[in-house]
Amino acid sequence: MVESGGKHIGILGAGNIGAAIARGLVAAAIAQAGQITLTRRKPESLAALKSEGFDVTTDNIKAVRGSDLIFLAVTPQQLNALLAEISPSVESLRHTVVSIVSGATIAQIRKHLGNDVVVIRAMPNTAIAIRQSMTCLSTDGDDREALSLVARMFDALGRTLVVDEGLMIPATALCACGIAFFLRAIRAASQGGIEIGFHAGDALLMAAQTALGAASLLVEGGNHPEGEVDRVTTPQGCTITGLNQMEHHGFSSALIKGIVTSAEKAALLYAPKPLSAGRDD
Questions:
Q1: Is 172-266 the same fold as 9-166?
Q2: Predicted model pTM
Q3: Around Cβ 101, how many Cβ atoms within 10 Å?
Q4: Domain spans of the chain?
């Protein structure tokens, strides 16, 4: 079991991904709910999390002062206002800041918080709530102890990969946005199943489990996708016929283009200019 080392954790911006991180940490026994403080601007949005035992507040400064490990889980548009708000309360000798904000570099965050503050970038996806996230991490210095702790935490919530910071925006497209891409592919497969005769619920179960099996062949077996494709395609068979039909309609090229386009958009999400108003929501 990985533990937080007794550190109190503050998650500023407990929206979908922030709440998923909190629930994942508890499910993995990394921290107890009472060790995690969650913030949002609207208190009614925190009611469900409060009922689960999390410490909740609308006060970001209070959360920072009571935490050792701070997750920034707001939108790129809300980041500058949040950093300006908490900056006086962040202590370089005490706090480690983990940013999951798309597009914001470590240098840009340190510009607000101070050059001595340990900042680690992380890009998980929403599967973290069921401990199946693919999380990419990066740091720009020698913060190996902090990076090791954060990596161990995310390892308990799925799989992690430490990458150069320059690859964090591509990681956003492939991993974070990628959840939606693969979900849409599963949905399309289930719709095909309905058309060939299955009830909707059965078709979705069959498509989702088949996708899980396909991914497991690669993750657990370490094989290349085309090697596994070759195992199920035979001359003049139904599998190759279906694959070729999909390719004729641009299946692979559409997915590639979607990932590339998402990466291009992610690079533009964070505007480094100061924001005049707004807080984490």
A1: no
A2: 0.87
A3: 26
A4: 9-166, 172-266
The pLDDT value recorded for residue 276 is: 45
Q: Give CA–CA dist 250/174, Å, rounded.
A: 19
Q: Give me the DSSP letters along 187-235.
A: HHHHHHHHHTT--HHHHHHHHHHHHHHHHHHHHHH---HHHHHHHH--T
- Using CA atoms, how far apart are residues 10 and 36, in angstroms rounded to an integer? 6
The 3-state DSSP class for residue 120 equals strand
In CATH, the architecture of 9-166 is 3-Layer(aba) Sandwich (3.40)
Closest CA to 108 of 280, 265, 274: 274
Spatial distance between the Cα atoms of 119 and 107, rounded to a whole number of angstroms: 9
Q: 267 and 70 in contact (C-beta within 8 Å)?
A: no
- Taking only the tens place, the pLDDT of each residue in 140-167 is 877 788 999 999 999 999 999 999 999 9
Q: How far apart are CA 103 and CA 121, in angstroms?
A: 10
Residue 119, SS3 per DSSP: strand
| pLDDT tens readout for residues 72-117 | 999 999 999 999 999 999 999 899 999 999 999 999 999 999 989 9
Q: Which residues contact 56 (CB under 8 A, 6 or more apart)?
A: 14, 37, 38, 39, 40, 43, 46, 49, 50
Classify domain 172-266 at the CATH class level: mainly alpha
